[in-house]
Amino acid sequence: MIRVLLVDDQPLIRSGFRALLDLEDDIEVVAEAGDGAAGVDLARRHLPDIALVDIQMPVVDGIEATRRIAADPALAGVHVVILTNYGLDEHVFDALRAGAAGFLVKDIVPEDLLHAVRVAARGDALLAPSITRKLIHRYVAQPLTPAAGAALSQLTNRERETVALVARGLSNDEIAARLVISPMTAKTHVNRAMTKLRARDRAQLVVLAYESGLVVPGGP
Questions:
Q1: Taking every annotated instance into account, which residue ranges of this chain make up the domain Response regulatory (predicted)?
Q2: Per-residue pLDDT of the chain (220 residues; tens, 9 = 90+)
Q3: How far, in Å, are 8, 19, 34, 69, 110 from residue 204 at the CA level?
Q4: Taking the model in full, what pTM does it have?
């Protein structure tokens, strides 16, 4: 059972998401919060698998709530998925750095929301295509980060290849096919890279890959 926490200051949004999610046999909404501070408290109380968190809220916003969840070792199993509007893409990079596992836009169709919850619960990075394009354009305009490049020096060549493919959006099965290895071996490379780079999840591997220049927008 995938346990979900809803954090949004709009009751109508929360009730709509709850009604949809609770219809699924493998998904359960365990709690709701109207601001980020309450959301963090409920995350500690219920230990959900997924926290769907609005990016703009009173008291504590979604970015700070994400940062607090990511910094708490007791909440290491909580995957934060940020809910955003198309006009808020300037916050995407900050929330990924804070520890968000991905982003969804609020006008997502029901089938895609359900798929997204299941993908995030598996620990895969989740970025809506429109958000991904804006994120890559943001990286084009910013300088490379030497610290990120130094961090990647810890990786083996195969682990670097794997991280680059994660940053391109490939799943473990797709990485396995590309590198002619088993899916379990691909998963092992991803997990070792996350451990060495102290990345919370695949989304942070994407950030590091672009920051270091391992992956260049538009490159091969």
A1: 3-121
A2: 999 999 999 999 999 999 999 999 999 999 999 999 999 999 999 999 999 999 889 899 999 999 999 999 999 899 999 888 764 456 767 777 788 888 788 888 898 889 889 888 887 666 655 555 555 555 545 555 666 667 788 999 999 999 999 888 788 888 999 999 999 999 999 999 989 988 877 777 887 887 787 877 655 5
A3: 24, 31, 27, 15, 26
A4: 0.70
